[in-house]
Every structure is written in C-alpha cells, then in structure tokens.
C-alpha cells in the first residue's frame, strides 16, 4: 500500500473529504499542516486510500477544496490553535498573529524559527509563509471578525478564483490576496464563533 501513496493527486483524481469531517482534531490539524507546508499531495493520496478502505462514498475534489474543508472544519470545532501549535506550542495565538502580520506585509516567510521538535532542529531556518498559510490566517481573522470585510466590493467569482490560485503548491499569489480570500470565505460561511469550543487539547493529543 506504500506504493499507492506516491500517486500524485490531480483535480481529476477521485478521493473523499469525509475523513476530515469525521476525523479527530489531530487528524484535521495534520491535513491543515500538509496544506500550509505544501506537502498536500501525499496526505491527500492517503486520505483517498483511507476512504476507499473504509468503503465510504468518495467524490471529485481538488486540493483547494480539501484544504479549505480542513480549515473550515477547524473553525467549526473551535480548534484553530491546532495548526499554530506546530509553530509555537507555548503561544499558538501569538504565532497566528505574527503570521497574519507577515502575510499582510506580503512576506513569504513567517519569521518564526523552526521549533526544536522538528527534524531540522537547530538549523536556524524559519518557516516559509505559503499562500495556503496566508489563507489559513485570513480564514481565522474572518471567523473572529465577521464584520471586518477586507474587500467589501469583491465579487464571489473573484474570491473563488483567488482560492483556486492560492491553495496549490508553489502559488505565487501575493500573500495579502491569500489573507483576503480566507477572510472573505470565512465571513461568507458565517461560522458562529460564540458556539465554538475553545481548544483545550493536550500537546500529546496534538502529536498523535
């Protein structure tokens, strides 16, 4: 089965997104992490195999749809911090705020040093700021600030185009556009954050 996970996902490859909707918080976080670090192909291939093995109905879905579904599911669960824990386990909220600031400056680097728990321990490098990560930050901003529309006159068709351009590996879309797309998408979805459960998971649970 290991060979199957090397299959490259394309927009025409059928796989399911049901696992994201029914999986544990840690699983949702792993999908989000794969998206923002642009390692989504391998993760999505595993998702597809997992769904087929469970006998679940699967559908046509693009990388962008899966990545957006993952962050929307985090919004629904109130577990935004699950992704940012990977950047700064002591202060995930602070990591989010820094990433949002950097993205709004159109930076392609978060400026956050790689945490010692990662395999590149001690190399002094910082996390890259992909467009997908800018989208994540924008989505959280839009969820937490439903009345602060970053682009009131932007039509839905343009937002959709930005999402499709942003949530792909190697996107060259300005990071500011990623933030706008994420915020607009979250505000359109209209999550009621008063109903969200605070993220109180342990570090051990996040790592599983």
Keywords for this entry:
disordered N terminus; single chain; 208 residues; two-stranded antiparallel sheet; mainly alpha
If you had to describe this structure to a student in words, what would you say it looks like?
The protein has one domain (4-192). It contains ten helices and four strands, in the order E-H-H-H-E-H-H-H-E-E-H-H-H-H. It has helices at 18-22, 25-36, 40-53, 63-77, 81-84, 92-104, 131-144, 156-166, 175-189, 203-207, and strands at residues 14-15, 59-60, 109-113, 126-128. A two-stranded antiparallel sheet has the order 1-2.
Question: Summed up, what is this model?
Answer:
This protein has 208 residues and is mainly α. The chain is 52% helix and 6% strand. The strands form 2 sheets. Strands 1-2 form a two-stranded antiparallel sheet. A two-stranded antiparallel ribbon has the order 3-4.
Which percent range fits the helix content? 40-55%
Q: How many H/I helical runs?
A: 10
Supply the helix-strand structural class: mainly alpha
Low-confidence stretches: 1-15, 192-208
Number of domains: 1
Indicate the overall shape. Answer: globular
Distance between the termini: 21 Å
What is the strand arrangement across the widest sheet?
Answer: 1-2
Outline the secondary-structure elements:
Layout (H helix, E strand, L loop, with lengths): L13 E2 L2 H5 L2 H12 L3 H14 L5 E2 L2 H15 L3 H4 L7 H13 L4 E5 L12 E3 L2 H14 L11 H11 L8 H15 L13 H5 L1
Antiparallel strand pairs: 1-2, 3-4
Helix pairs in contact: 2-3, 2-4, 4-7, 6-7, 7-9, 8-9
């Amino acid at each position: 089965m290991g060979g199957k996970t090397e299959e490259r996902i394309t927009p025409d490859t059928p796989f399911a997104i049901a696992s994201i909707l029914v999986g544990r918080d840690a699983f949702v976080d792993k999908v989000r992490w794969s998206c923002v670090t642009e390692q989504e192909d391998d993760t999505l291939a595993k998702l597809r195999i997992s769904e087929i093995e469970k006998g679940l109905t699967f559908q046509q879905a693009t990388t962008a749809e899966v990545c957006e579904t993952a962050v929307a599911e985090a919004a629904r669960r109130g577990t935004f911090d699950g992704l940012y824990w990977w950047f700064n386990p002591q202060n995930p909220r602070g990591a989010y705020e820094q990433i949002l600031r950097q993205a709004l400056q159109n930076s392609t680097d978060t400026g956050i040093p790689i945490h010692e728990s990662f395999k590149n321990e001690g190399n002094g490098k910082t996390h890259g700021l992909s467009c997908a990560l800018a989208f994540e930050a924008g989505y959280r901003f839009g969820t937490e600030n439903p009345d602060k529309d970053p682009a009131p006159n932007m039509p839905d068709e343009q937002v959709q185009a930005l999402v499709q351009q942003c949530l792909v590996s190697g996107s060259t879309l300005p990071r500011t556009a990623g933030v706008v797309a994420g915020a607009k998408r979250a505000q359109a979805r209209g999550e009621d954050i008063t109903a969200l459960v605070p993220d109180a998971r342990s570090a051990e649970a996040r790592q599983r």
